[in-house]
Design a protein that fits this description.
The protein is about 45% helix and about 15% strand. With about 375 residues, it is an alpha/beta fold. The chain has a 7-stranded mixed beta sheet with strand order 2-10-9-8-5-3-4, with helices on both faces. Strands 11-12-15-14 form a 4-stranded antiparallel beta sheet, covered by helices on one side. The chain has a two-stranded parallel sheet with strand order 1-13. Bound molecules: pyridoxal-5'-phosphate (PLP). Pyridoxal-5'-phosphate binds near residues 62 and 63.
């Protein structure tokens, strides 16, 4: 089979350990062997989340954990503040609205930094707020939000829960759930966890579990309290996604063999730096401020359609990256740095991008291609 060079911010290429696990024969989930595997995954997740509070596994995509965060901690009529800096911020807002919460938004121009003063103003204007919801990395623009700083600011507002969609940030950038005081953190399997889409992970702080006791929003499948009881005893409440949990366990095998969280974050930093150094030779500007290491987003020149460019790159070079969304659909390209990306995958992608830009009529010379490739090679010190 011919695998395309996949560099999107999810799904991502997977290590051989994960492929092997997915090909194993089916086993039943109510067995001691499966219980051991699940417990081991739950314990490893705490390490990635940097917390000793339980991290739970749900059978859903990442958005399921976002919905779960809301319905398990909030109650009818609660007021929340959503930081909307892109498509995923809109998702938090939409989920909250779907459950009838009173939603205030702090709109940040897509790709621009969040100013903490503006957040502070919103907090002081709305004394009834029960929660602040944000992305850590806003994948639609590639911007990193100042989660640690927001968490510090929120220490002055002890009745507010801070919920963070860390789906493309966890494993790619420093995140200290417990130490920073993040009340809910959401993650998903097809990003830094290098496995297929289909599992989500969620942590709740002690404060969030207290809120859970009073929360009266409707919930059934995503009832986290019931799920917590089950997972503490090495089970999931409903049938377990056995193959996915085996794959997660295999991911952790890979992760630990490479040096764990430190390696994962370092690798992402290196891939993003190499990409940015290389793309400078094509005179493309980094779009977001500040950029997340999980993906690199570049502004294309006016006359190149990002949508057509993406398609051309896939058709002619079997290289898959993403263009933008909504008003940025035709303006930006997004290159993912999560997953099992070998150095050669990135180098090939960079050269293909250079050639595709040339195909689109940009004056890219042979020497620029060489320099971009060299910049990439020189920056990459480790290997996936
Ligand atoms: C991928 C992603 C999600 C989850 O999307 P699903 O399609 O539900 O997996 C949520 N937030 C961000 C920032 C993401 O990048």
């Amino acid at each position: 089979m011919n695998f395309p060079n996949l560099l999107t911010p999810g799904p991502v290429p997977m290590p051989p350990e994960v492929y092997r696990a997915l090909g194993e024969p089916m086993t039943h989930h109510r067995t001691p062997e499966f219980n051991r595997q699940l417990r081991s995954c739950l314990s490893s997740l705490k390490g990635v989340f940097q917390t000793d509070d339980p991290v739970l596994i749900q059978t859903s995509t990442g958005s399921g954990s976002m919905e779960s965060a809301v319905v398990n901690t909030l109650s009818q009529g609660d007021e929340v503040l959503v930081i909307v800096a892109g498509k995923f911020g809109q998702r938090w807002r939409d989920i909250c609205q779907a459950y009838g919460l009173k939603v205030h938004t702090l709109d940040v121009e897509w790709g621009q930094p969040l100013h903490l003063d503006n957040l502070k103003k919103c907090l002081d204007l709305q004394p009834q707020l029960k929660a602040v919801l944000s992305q850590y990395c806003e994948t639609s623009t590639g911007a990193l939000l100042p989660i640690k700083e927001i968490a510090t600011l929120l220490k002055n507002y002890p009745s507010i829960l801070f919920m963070v969609d860390a789906i493309t940030a966890i494993g790619a950038v420093e995140l200290k759930t417990k130490k920073w005081g993040l009340d809910v953190v959401c993650a998903g399997s097809q990003k830094a966890f290098m496995m297929p889409t289909g599992l989500s992970f969620i942590s709740l702080s002690e404060k969030a579990w207290l809120a859970n006791q009073k929360s009266n929003l409707p919930k059934y499948y995503f009832d986290l309290n019931r799920e917590r009881q089950a997972q503490l005893s090495g089970q999931t409440y409903f049938s377990s996604a056995v193959s996915h949990i085996k794959a997660l366990s295999a991911y952790f095998e890979y992760f630990n063999s490479k040096g764990g969280l430190e390696f994962s974050i370092q690798r992402c930093a290196e891939l993003s730096l190499a990409t940015r150094e290389a793309m400078e030779h094509f005179n493309l500007d980094v779009f977001p401020k500040p950029p997340s290491p999980s993906l690199s987003t570049f502004l294309l020149p006016e006359r190149v359609s990002a949508k057509k460019f993406r398609q051309h790159l896939e058709d002619k070079y079997q290289t898959i990256i993403m263009n933008g969304q909504d008003h940025l659909v035709d303006k930006i390209i997004r290159i993912g740095h999560l997953g099992y990306i070998k150095n050669q995958n990135l180098i090939d992608a960079i050269v293909s991008i250079g050639m595709a830009l040339k195909d689109m009529g940009l004056p890219i010379r042979e020497n620029q291609l060489k320099l971009a490739k060299l910049a990439c090679q020189n920056t990459l010190k480790g290997e996936a």
